[in-house]
Write a structure and sequence with these properties.
Layout (H helix, E strand, L loop, with lengths): L29 H9 L2 H18 L2 E3 L8 E3 L7 E3 L1 H25 L4 H4 L5 H5 L21 E8 L5 E7 L6 H14 L1 H6 L6 H14 L9 E5 L7 H11 L3 E2 L4 E4 L2 E6 L2 E4 L2 E5 L21 H6 L4 E3 L16 H8 L11 E3 L3 H9 L5 E4 L9 E2 L5 H13 L4 E4 L5 E6 L5 E15 L2 E4 L4 E4 L15 E7 L30 H32 L5 H14 L10 H10 L7 H14 L6 H18 L5 H24 L5 H27 L6 H10 L3 H8 L5 H10 L7 H19 L5 H11 L12 H35 L12
Parallel strand pairs: 3-21, 6-7, 6-11, 11-12
Antiparallel strand pairs: 1-2, 4-5, 4-18, 8-9, 9-10, 13-16, 14-15, 14-16, 17-18, 18-19, 18-20, 20-21
Helix pairs in contact: 14-15, 14-16, 14-17, 14-19, 14-20, 15-20, 17-18, 18-19, 20-24, 20-26, 24-25, 25-26
């Protein structure tokens, strides 16, 4: 046995994927083990670290509700793939494809003629008594006549090496995207081995999915628009939803992005409503339509089922497919297979029994310690119970419940998992229990099975429960040999010519654009407030230098609503609240949370580097929240936070395509900066500090123009040149006139593109600002009183510009995000 396996001790009662019954390495594992043996432990650690870095760089997460480490928990991926030889995989493929075809026919019968119920092959109570049977879907014939477009099955290997079905996933099966991401990462960790072993590619599976959705969509000659429907960023598999949408080339949408008009489904876009022909849903059945299925759902689309009923949209999987995930069906599938397919199941399921059958109940009660008792319906307020884990009194209580409501329970034999090697760092290679999820997709000639899958590892070592929600680790699954032709493409091979060129996203959801708009606003707001807070902290730490400058900036911050008033405690307490306050609505912490929220909603539009900058920004804020030191230490942390905030500006300017989404992001930043400059400079002019050089210094710093001023004038800050730089300099991006003209140009492009009126009020204010003459501050007609009047008038002009910018924001919201008017750019049939 190789030294690498010195500490490898497989369990005697479980099948070991790596070693045979004699303790010898199985043939299909030898090449991998040989390469591992030639590697030093440090090299393997480096490979695992590379895998971890790639996951972090790609932003691969699996959301865990109420996780103390945060909802966006990094995906866990083991360095060692799970290996399956081609001959063994052929048997798995045949069994999975057969089972998918069988379940599709069962769904067609249960929502159609219900002959299985009439023939006694399924008990009516098991079907009609289950919450997942959707009565409004009865008699609905889906477009394309396929119910089960995507199917997943959880497999486990028993001690004798036989693969068994542990569970069917028919509703909105998750994991195919994670399997693809695992493949791309692990194939780079072992590139030579991946090539030499002839590992089968996954591209054909996803290409078949694209073909199926396009061919079955009721497009009537139109180019079908397919969307991926997600429950949103807090769903546990949101990364996968986003990843699949990107890979497949489909818009990722939420229920609020869609609307039904005249029994037709539309996507809300900037250009109006665009008809949707197919929906790849990642949303549970009953949440999809609050009008007919679940009234309290805020995630679905009212009226969607009627569109399905009219066969004007394809929904994959068909609504109602979740019924077959109920554990009670497994006991009846062998007989149903003989009836519908004329052949036995190629992949057996774990032994199960529906307790409503008298003989089954008697067998279960006789051997209760050997069964796992599960509720038939997820609506039942009980969890799965292992009979062997109960004492005599508890077993008697369970038996009583079974006798009182036998139809509410299913008994299953405990699932036995095989073991596979995992890389455990300092412990080397160790055995862990695994389960495997395999995927199938409907095609024109039956079901096509993905040549691989999502292998999940039970952790810790002494458990056999595989759950990603409870800290599970995943593995890439390599099917060895018989690789398909290397020419198999992921995307379609249709030739594209000059007439096919597209330079903007025609299906950009209005919700995404709205969030990009607010992403721009919040990123600018956070940067502005962080700069103001840094000025206050710096002056507070060094207040012996110039207490008047500190008093002036505090007065301005309170005028802007950034700093709490005196009723909130001492100045130090108020400054901490401005930075870290969870309840203060204008705190930097709260605004960063708003920024992260909007960023999560537009993640598909952000580059990998941009997203990583946001992740680092979140970490910077978490480090600040954990600081217990004085304000000087907080100031040091705030300086680092500012670097991350400024980086976001760079990504917006240099890392995004100049499409409509980017334009709205830019408009959002522009409006926010313009309002902040107007409010800040106007407030500064009113507090009477315009003749204080120290106050003018921090005003330049607030306008991010200190270096420019020093370079130009090499003199102390004085009012007229400061106002010229912050108000009228057309080349200074932190000047009011610069931002005002930038906003007007952006609005003009929108008006030309979307046939909307321009902003006459804002244009008039721009002319007034351009005409402001700084000479009026040199020789006022009425001395100091005249200067005061000029400054007050200037402050009033800035107020008007800030209000007009806010009005533009409201107008854009009504025009592009609310969709109150009639549908535009649509077809009525």
């Amino acid at each position: 046995m190789p030294d690498l396996l010195t500490g490898y001790a497989p369990a005697e009662a479980a099948y070991d994927e790596l070693l045979d019954s004699r303790g010898q390495v199985r043939a299909h594992w030898r090449a991998l083990l040989d390469q591992l043996q030639r590697s030093q432990p440090a090299q393997l650690q480096q490979r695992q670290a590379m895998v971890t870095r790639q996951i972090q760089a790609n932003g691969v997460t699996y959301n865990v509700y109420a996780d103390p480490e945060g909802t966006d928990r990094p995906w866990e991926l083991d360095l060692l793939p799970s290996l399956i030889p081609a001959a063994e995989w052929q048997a798995i493929t045949a069994g999975v494809a057969q089972r998918a075809a069988l379940l599709d026919r069962v769904l067609a019968d249960l929502y159609g003629p219900q002959q299985l119920l009439a023939d006694g092959l399924l008990p009516p109570e098991l079907v009609f008594g289950h919450d997942s049977f959707l009565w409004p879907c009865q008699g609905v014939q889906p477009a394309g006549s396929t119910y089960l477009h995507l199917y997943a099955v959880d497999l486990a290997r028993s001690a004798d090496g036989q693969w068994q079905v542990a569970a069917d996933r028919t509703q909105a099966p998750a994991g195919a995207g994670f399997a693809l991401e695992n493949r791309q990462i692990i194939s780079r960790a072992f590139p030579e081995l991946y090539r030499d072993l002839g590992v089968q590619h996954l591209a054909g599976f996803f290409r078949t999915l694209q073909d199926t959705l396009a061919s079955q969509a009721p497009a009537a000659g139109e180019t079908p628009l397919v969307v991926v429907l997600t429950a949103g960023r807090f769903n546990e598999s949101y990364f996968e939803h986003l990843y699949l949408a990107r890979q497949l080339g489909y818009p990722l949408v939420e229920g609020s992005d869609l609307t039904v008009r005249d029994a037709t489904l539309y996507l809300k876009t900037l250009a109006g409503l665009q008809r949707v022909h197919a929906v790849l849903r990642r949303l549970d059945d009953d949440f999809c339509d609050p009008l007919e299925l679940r009234p309290d759902s805020a995630l679905g689309v009212p009226g969607l089922l009627e569109v399905v009923r009219q066969r004007r949209v394809l929904v994959a999987n068909a609504l109602g497919c979740g019924l077959l995930e109920a554990p009670g069906f497994a006991a009846f599938l062998p007989a149903i297979s003989e009836k519908l397919l004329g052949e036995p199941l190629l992949l057996p399921g774990v032994a199960s029994a529906w307790c409503a059958e008298p003989q089954a109940l008697a067998d279960v009660l006789e051997r209760l310690p050997h069964w796992l008792i599960r509720p038939c319906s997820p609506a039942q307020a009980c969890t799965a119970t292992a009979g062997g884990s109960l004492d005599a009194a508890q077993r008697a209580d369970l038996a009583s419940h079974l006798g009182q409501q036998p139809g509410a329970y299913v008994a299953q034999a405990p699932v036995q998992l095989s073991q596979a090697p995992v890389w455990s760092g300092d412990e080397g290679v160790q055995p862990r229990a695994i389960g495997m999820r395999v995927f199938a997709v409907a095609s024109a000639d039956g079901y096509r099975v993905m040549p691989g899958g999502l292998t999940r590892v039970a952790t810790p070592a002494d458990t056999e429960v595989v759950s990603m929600q409870h800290g599970g680790v995943s593995k890439d699954t390599w099917v060895l040999g018989e690789r398909q032709a290397p020419g198999e493409q992921w995307q379609g091979t249709r030739a594209l010519g000059a007439a096919d060129l597209v330079r903007s996203d025609p299906y950009l959801p209005s919700r995404v654009v709205e969030n990009l708009f607010w992403f721009g606003r919040y990123s600018e707001r956070c940067e502005d407030h962080a700069r103001l807070l840094r000025i206050m902290l710096a002056r507070y730490v060094d207040d012996d230098d110039d207490p008047q400058a500190l008093a002036a900036v505090l007065q301005l911050a309170q005028h802007l609503g950034t700093l709490p008033n005196d009723q909130h405690g001492t100045l130090e307490t108020r400054l901490r609240e401005t930075l870290l306050g969870a309840e203060w609505p204008a705190s930097l912490r709260v605004n960063l949370q708003r920024l992260q929220w909007t960023a999560g909603s537009v993640r598909g539009k952000l580059s990998q580097a941009n997203w990583q900058a946001l992740v680092e920004l979140q970490r910077d804020m978490q480090r600040l929240e954990g600081r217990e030191g004085d304000l000087g230490q907080l100031l040091d942390g705030l300086n680092r936070l500012m670097i991350s905030l400024v980086a976001l500006s760079g990504f917006a300017l240099d890392d995004m395509t100049r499409d409509d989404g980017w334009r709205f992001l830019l408009i959002g930043r522009c409006i926010e900066r313009l309002q902040f400059l107007c409010d800040s400079i106007g407030g500064f002019l009113r507090i009477g500090a315009s003749d204080d050089p120290s106050a003018l210094d921090w005003l330049l710093e607030l306008g991010n123009s200190s270096i420019t001023y020093r370079t130009r004038y090499m003199a102390s800050a004085q009012l007229i040149p400061v106002l010229d730089l912050l108000l009228l300099d057309e080349r200074n991006p932190h000047a009011v006139l610069y931002q005002l003209r930038l906003l007007l140009r952006a609005l003009k492009r929108l008006a030309e593109r979307f046939d909307m009126p321009g902003s006459a009020d804002l244009a008039q204010l721009e002319r007034r600002m351009s005409a402001f003459d700084l000479h009026s501050l040199e020789n006022p007609l009425f001395g100091d009183g005249g200067t005061r009047a000029v400054l007050d008038g200037l402050a009033g002009l800035l107020d008007a510009i800030g209000l007009a910018a806010g009005s533009v924001s409201e107008q854009l919201s009504l025009r592009f995000f609310a969709h109150v008017g009639a549908s535009q750019g649509t077809q009525s049939s």
